[in-house]
Design brief:
Elements lengths: L3 E6 L5 E5 L2 E5 L8 E6 H10 L9 E2 L5 H8 L5 H7 L3 H9 L2 H10 L3 H13 L5 H11 L5 H4 L4
Antiparallel strand pairs: 1-4, 1-5, 2-3
Amino acid sequence: MEEQIILERHRPTPYVVNFENKRYEWLGAKNGVPSTKKVPREVYDFIAMGSSALESGKLVLSKKMTDDLVEELKEEIPDIEKYEVNALTKEEVEKILKGNLKSMEKAFSEIEDFGTKQFIYKVAKEIKIENSNKQKMIKDLIGSELSIEDLFAEE
């Protein structure tokens, strides 16, 4: 039996990978529960080497796999530093947002991927961040021209 790699989608939107006439689809995460899919090793290799899905945090290596396997798989990611910064779970984002301003500023300074920034904004809205300094930092992070009031208005 071929090795199966477990990949997760922590963002609320779906993600699709087409590989050799086969479609692998992750639905968006719902209520903080990631969409999980097992893929063959060759599909993982294709994703790791032929796309930015891992580096940008669109797909994340599951913690359900052994630590040794996860470390081995991380070695195949071309820019592991980007992966480590962008592969955030909802819980990790909440922890950043609930932390102090200094730690939040440090975490934000490392993030370059726009999708990760949008994910942070969506989580901030969902958990209703009310601190105006944190709201301003998030506004600056996503580079929005909207006012803080418009960005964080109740829907």
